[in-house]
Amino acid sequence: MKSAYSRYSAFKFTATLTAALFFWPVYSVADSSNPFILTYQGRSIDSAPYSFAFPYRLEHATIEHQKIYFSRHVEGEGKHLFVTDWDPLKPISLDSQSATKVTNTDLNSINFWRRYLNTRLGGLVAEADEDKAERINLWLFADGADKPRRLTDVDYIYEFTQSKDHSAIYYTARYGSSDAAKGCLEELTIQNNGSTQTRQLICDDNPAMPARINWWTKLRADSERVVFPALKDGDRNKQELYTYDLSDGSVSLMFEGHGKSWVDVWHGWGDEAQALFSADRDLYRYDFKADEAVLLRRFDRALSGFRPAGSGEAPNIMVTTETPFETKLEVFAVAPDRLTLLSTTTLSEDVWLADGYDGQVMVGKFSPETYAAFDMLTVVHDGSFTSQNAIKGLAEINDQLSQCNVERVQVTHEDTSSQSPGTQTLDVFIYRPRDLPPVEDQKFIVTAYYGGKNEFSSYHHLFCALGLTKVSPAVRGDWRYGTEFANSNDREKADAPIRDTLAVARYLMEQFDIPNSRQIGTTGYSHGGWAAVRAVSYPGPERLDLGFAIAGGGFYDLPAIVDPTKNGETNIHGWFDKEFGTADQQELLRVLSPSQNLDEITAPIFLYHADRDTRVSPNQSYSFAERLAEAGKTHELMIIPDQGHSIRGPEIWAEIRQRLLDFVSQTP
């Protein structure tokens, strides 16, 4: 039966944070209408500060044009975008009262993805939609405008870039509801008066285009050409880069990255003669005149970020490489045939290179203990740099939001399966409550996929405050260790991260003297939703009797995903084919489906899904819940109305978390 989540319940209010430090809705201690209070086993915490106390989310910073765009939740109005002028050499306090509001659109009501400032249009151009249905187009969020303006009319935009003078935008688009549909490279030209016009440059139904235009990596444009990604035969294991000649419309293969997990051209460096691009751990310089790619350096870990760190067309570059536990920040001089290392700095935080221009690089730093810190680096020619605080007022907020003691451990186990045998070492974050319940009352929630993130998680810290331990491992399939590790869970090896998760659960039992394996459960979203349920339905010899699973936006009947009569089950068939298999691999898909392994399920399962999800249809959760009910399995299904695959809104998330907390509290 379809059901919607209930309205906000009344909970006892127990303040655990100092309200005077924050900017969030004020409720009296006796006010039972506070929808943000979370309760579990006699403990309570107000989750509002985790949405409203942190004063903003940095959306886009441009050193060249001296503007910062940020969003923040406004009580009673939703989440809004603001812009403020900025001197990059002076620390700034972001204040929505003194900033300009950019449209009256509630960002929680739309998808709002990659964005660039376009000076000709006078605002931020973003990949967005109208109703979270993932019909993604380019929209202009102009400074001070009442509403955003749609610039394109396609079914989906994968990526876009713009010319240096902002007179043209180039984007890869799809015409159809899934990535099996026609893809095109298109151009949006912008006149001085702000008028625009679009045209198709090349589509993949043209015999001159030998690969499918349906991939998410970056584009690059100069005055002569556009570099764009495509997939040979639509296969995500066959990534390629192509050039489109703006003078004659010809298309040429630039690089064949078959077998690579991520091939990416670098926007912001080079000119009409040369460009940089990466293929997993390898960095190349491409000479357009010679039509030649030269390997400059092979890094020891996956490349995660790049910014120019100097002036001119071919300046020094700042590069980040990372593992879950640290980030390496390096500055290089670029020669035609090599990189020369100028400086290296290793940080325990995850580092985001927010922007770089004329020797200035803005960096964001994140960790499990730190919500955010932003610094401005001034890089000199020899690669050394000085650092100063870029945004003020964050340290106090970081201290108040932290609720966990975080441990970083490595878990080693032996995978004896025939599909992916060998010794595996996993990087794991363990978030422990500062006030621990007795060991027999402790529960551990393990992220089954997309874990191991070196960043602050409100979810984890809220649950620590309630006495729950969150565990976040980087399992096989994670991109940060290079191609082999990233592809180590494809198709027949799809269960590799499940065996990793079960190994982590066994480690927890031994390390923390957990008397009962049912004190441990799993959680995950999307691919992770499948993984969370697969871990409690896994039929292999590594099986462990886990206590519960929390799964959001997941898929549980894999043959239905590739069934042509059920074309609406997903709009990302290419991704699914790579990860799990194609329509001609029915037996594999059946084996990997939790709905086909009901006899193995003894753990209660909490499912939640958005009713407008087009990436993974809610039919997957509806049908799985029906199968669980028919089999007499304990479960709960929560359907979130008016939301897509990206569920947004602090009130909604407070309700989801309380529902799943109630569910977990009832598990033995």
TrEMBL record:
Pfam families hit by this protein:
Peptidase_S9 (PF00326)
Is Nucleotide-binding included in the keywords of this UniProt record? no
InterPro entries from the entry? 6-blade_b-propeller_TolB-like, AB_hydrolase_fold, Peptidase_S9_cat
Enumerate the UniProt keywords alphabetically.
Hydrolase
Tell me the GO BP annotations in alphabetical order. proteolysis
Q: Does the keyword Transit peptide apply?
A: no
> Which part of the chain is the Peptidase S9 prolyl oligopeptidase catalytic domain?
455-666
Superkingdom of this protein's organism: Bacteria
A GO molecular function term, named singly, is: serine-type endopeptidase activity
- The name under which this protein is listed is Prolyl oligopeptidase family protein
What organism is the protein native to? Answer: Roseovarius aestuarii
